[in-house]
């Protein structure tokens, strides 16, 4: 408990002048801040340069000076696939659902796959005309 105690007047020592280090020092406990600070300080030993770039793929050249020697690594990063945001409307349909089309069904005559519905069903229109004429 004493390790994590933070007094209003207590501030940890900063190794760099990065604004991120200053803001994190105010948020984290001392123990967590010193872990973050060490990782931040170690990251300054690397030099990153773009080696090759196109629309979908980028290769970076990462260099680290280690004891007077030079160590070089190439890292490639792909452009991520587009993702739909959570709750953005309709669900995404699978391949089979996209290919299958529901056939229309007339509720007047009961036939499926017809190009008419109950409002303009030829069977009902004939019955309606017979009723109008008086048969």
Task: State the strand order across the main sheet.
Answer: 1-2-3
Largest sheet: 3 strands, antiparallel
Alpha-carbon Rg, integer: 35 Å
- Count of DSSP strands: 3
- Please state roughly what percent of the residues sit in beta strands, choosing from under 5%, 5-15%, 15-25%, 25-35%, 35-45% or over 45%: 15-25%
Span between N and C termini? 97 Å
Estimated structural class: alpha+beta
Helix content: 25-40%
H/E element order: HHEEEHH
Helix tally equals 4
Runs in which pLDDT lies below 50 for 5 or more consecutive residues are none
Mean pLDDT: 75
Q: Please state the overall shape, judged from the principal axes of the Cα atoms.
A: elongated
Describe this structure in words.
A hairpin with a 3-residue loop joins strand 1 (46-53) and strand 2. It is built from 4 helices and 3 strands, in the order ααβββαα. The protein starts with 18 loop residues before the first helix and ends with a helix. It has helices at residues 19-27, 30-43, 95-99, 122-133; strands at 46-53, 57-66, 69-78. With 135 residues, it is α+β, with helices and mostly antiparallel strands.
């Amino acid at each position: 408990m004493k390790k994590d105690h933070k007094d209003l007047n207590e501030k940890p020592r900063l190794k760099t002048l990065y604004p991120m280090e200053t803001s994190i020092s105010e948020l984290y406990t001392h123990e967590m801040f010193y872990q973050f600070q060490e990782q931040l300080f170690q990251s300054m030993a690397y030099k990153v340069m773009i080696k090759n770039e196109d629309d979908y793929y980028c290769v970076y050249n990462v260099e680290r000076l280690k004891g007077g020697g030079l160590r070089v690594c190439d890292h490639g990063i792909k452009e991520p696939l587009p993702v739909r945001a959570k709750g953005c409307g309709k669900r995404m349909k699978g391949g089979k659902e996209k290919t299958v089309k529901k056939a229309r069904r007339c509720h007047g005559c009961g036939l499926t796959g017809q190009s008419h519905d109950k409002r303009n069903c030829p069977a009902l229109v004939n019955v309606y005309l017979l009723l109008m004429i008086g048969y």
